[in-house]
Amino acid sequence: MTDIPVSTPIKRAKRESQTALMWRRFKRHRLALVSLWIVALFYLIAILAEFLAPHDPGAYSARYTYAPPQGLQLFSTDENGGWRFFPHVNGYSTEVDREAMRRIFVVDPEIEIPVQFLAPSDPYLLAGVIPMSVKLIGVTEARAPFYILGADRLGRDLLSRLIHGTRISLSIGLAGVTLSLFFGIIIGGFAGYYGGWFDSAVMRVIEFIRSMPTIPLWLGLAAAMPKDWSALQTYFAITIILSLIGWTELARVVRGRFLSLRTEDFVTAAQLDGASDWRIITRHMVPSFMSHIIAAATLAIPGMILAETALSFLGLGLQAPIVSWGTLLQDAQNIRTLASAPWLLAPGVCVVIIILSMNFFGDGLRDAADPHGR
């Protein structure tokens, strides 16, 4: 009698969680992966703004108005003509523009101002919580000019103001989208789930809001804010205004999905099982089209950032002393100023980079969250 070979036990396939499956799909999208790191870098800069900014964003020096960018150099030549590690920036020499009859600054390569990493500074609170007295970078001479990206019309450091403006602009986008998601999912979800008169009323409100021109609507809402409000109150008011306008698109998407899902078998089974309407909506229907919500959220954040930038640029949004990308771009409205100080357009470059990165990141995240994706 021949021995019957014992079959090798079948190796059970490793089960992956939904998050692991999404991450594995997302990593295939190279452009989205790079965009994720860029977005994460911007938000890290926003969190560590006080530590990364060399100067206080409100500190000014009339002596260095419209000073050009000095740049940051890590190496210098020694006496023997070789290279040595010597972080520094070049100083300024002044010239007179006889046509405009004004003083202009010229970066002088002969003047080297030493730069120190983890430089001591005045005490401050990191993110308003952690007491610190050190900056990432600073000059060893207290009164020496240090403008890596140049200075504005009041002699304020553009790099420091740009870093602090990142916190305001990005937080407005995040907070505004969070409120828009809440309003859009709740209102659109109940409209699509219950239908009837409530659905008709919600759709009429959405159509009315979307039919109004954006700029006049912003003008009216911005004019309704009291002029005696503090900068912080204005900040929250702008966030709420953008949220009240931005929830309509997501609500329409959610409503349409709910209309098609409420007759599905899994919804009927949950109803027969005695599940409440809230549980059916939040635990069964919303997760079934999470990819649409993710895509809408990631695409809405750039829209919020652009809206805040446009409002502040037009003088309708955030105002001094609050620093945002929009308020910084107000200095770039004058063509004559831009001709002599083109570095004032740096906030616009940041806006373009973060908008493109968030769009690519949202595209990759939508494909990764798609349950029908390969």
Give structural notes.
By secondary structure, the chain is an alpha+beta fold. It contains 13 helices and four strands. The chain has a four-stranded antiparallel β-sheet with strand order 1-2-3-4. Helix 10 (290-313) runs antiparallel to helix 13. The longest helix has 37 residues, at 158-194.
Tell me what portion of residues adopts beta-strand conformation: 5-15%
Distinct helical segment count: 13
The largest sheet is: 4 strands, antiparallel
Beta strands, count: 4
Fold topology:
Elements: H1 18-28, H2 30-47, H3 49-52, E1 73-77, E2 83-97, E3 102-126, E4 130-139, H4 158-194, H5 196-211, H6 214-223, H7 231-261, H8 265-272, H9 277-288, H10 290-313, H11 325-329, H12 335-340, H13 346-369
Antiparallel strand pairs: 1-2, 2-3, 3-4
Short description:
The chain has 374 residues and is an alpha+beta fold.
Keyphrases for this structure?
374 residues, alpha+beta, 15% strand
